[in-house]
Amino acid sequence: MVRLNGNSKIILKKAGSLLLAVVLAGLLPLQPAAADSAASSGVDCSILDPAVYLNDSSISFDTAPVIVNGRTLVPVRPIMEGLGLTVSWEDKSQTVTGSGQDHTIIMKIGQDYFTDNGQAVSLDSPAIIYNNRTCIPVRALAEVLGCQVVWNNSYRYVGILYDGFDESLQEAVAVPERNAQAEAEAEKRAAAAAAAAAKEYTRSDTAAGNITANSCPYCIVVNTANCTTRVYGKDSSGKYTVLQRNMVCSTGRSGHETPKGNFSIYAHVDNGGYHLMVDGTYGRWCMRFKSGGYMFHTVCYAHAGDASPIASEVSALGTNVSRGCVRLSVSDAQWLYGIIADGTKVAVI
């Protein structure tokens, strides 16, 4: 439980739309159209950069939030320190520790949970390193410290409220003047990004619908333009039109482009074990879809047996950085491996 003097509070002020602000607090997942476009199409993510207030004093992030798997992650140090914790970093194990307020919180890069006084707490998305900053979804951290996350529609901010906060004062919080022109421009950028993403999703949906169905219950469409992998099931007429899962991925970089065309899954590799890749790293949950070494697999691990993948590769999801394979988060790759049978059709567009 956080204990500060007076009516202490942190306010995460919206810099874009209502939806983006709510997403920042983890109240709602960002819809794929907005999330994937910001992560993969070069849209300036500063439209999500929040102002943070502690006791009505601004705390700034020096790194803008980043979208991974449809979740907005924020730098953890300013949040921890604002909540009264002392923060330390252990480089060898890539672990951040926050201590104070009767809590010891330990987070390790790449893990989808952290511990609070030894008890595991789930995260919507694993902790990552982005621009040399540890970033996490903020809601889980706030709630484990006994805070309440609320949305104030009058002033359009997300508040993290401490124990003893007088909610009757919520409407009277002094919020700096909003820059209407900057917000309008941000809204236009977000709308353009959403429109571009919607166009790419339509292309993926069309590609799936054009696949001639076989006995396999699913098909896979990889869109190299917006770095997404979508899995479709059959509708009542037997066509692949029912979206099962949308996943952010990494596809081939310039000179190592993921080949486009129609393929089929023809081999499951190592049953989740560590598979040696051509660059000396290791992938897991690998499935081959084209000769020449092209596979679906997890983001890479530095060594066989490592508990967590390479943090920079997790951060790179949503971009074209691979050597031609389709890289997925660990949870997405494992899910895909578990439901996809050999013979499943794959379209890369």
Secondary-structure map:
Blueprint: E1 9-13, H1 18-24, H2 32-40, E2 51-54, E3 57-59, E4 66-68, E5 71-75, H3 76-82, E6 86-90, E7 95-100, E8 103-108, E9 113-116, E10 119-122, E11 128-130, E12 133-136, H4 138-144, E13 148-152, E14 157-161, H5 180-210, E15 218-223, E16 228-234, E17 240-252, E18 261-264, E19 267-269, E20 275-276, E21 282-283, E22 286-290, E23 294-298, H6 311-315, E24 320-322, E25 326-328, H7 330-339, E26 345-348
Helix pairs in contact: 2-5
What does this structure look like?
The protein has 349 residues and is α+β, with helices and mostly antiparallel strands. The chain folds into 2 domains: 9-190, Copper amine oxidase-like, N-terminal domain (Copper Amine Oxidase, Chain A, domain 1), CATH 3.30.457; 211-348, Beta Barrel (L,D-transpeptidase catalytic domain-like). The chain has 7 helices and 26 strands. The longest helix has 31 residues, at 180-210. It is globular and about 60 Å long. The chain starts with 8 loop residues before the first strand and ends with a strand. The model is unreliable at 3-52, 151-156 and 164-176 (pLDDT under 50).
Overall mean pLDDT:
77
Q: Provide the domain count.
A: 2
Per the CATH scheme, the topology name of the largest domain is Copper Amine Oxidase, Chain A, domain 1
Helix content estimate: 10-25%
Number of helices: 7
Number-wise, the strands total 26
Largest sheet: 10 strands, mixed
What's the overall geometry?
Answer: globular
End-to-end C-alpha gap: 50 Å
Q: Any idea what the CATH superfamily of the largest domain is called? A: Copper amine oxidase-like, N-terminal domain
Q: Provide the low-confidence segments as ranges.
A: 3-52, 151-156, 164-176
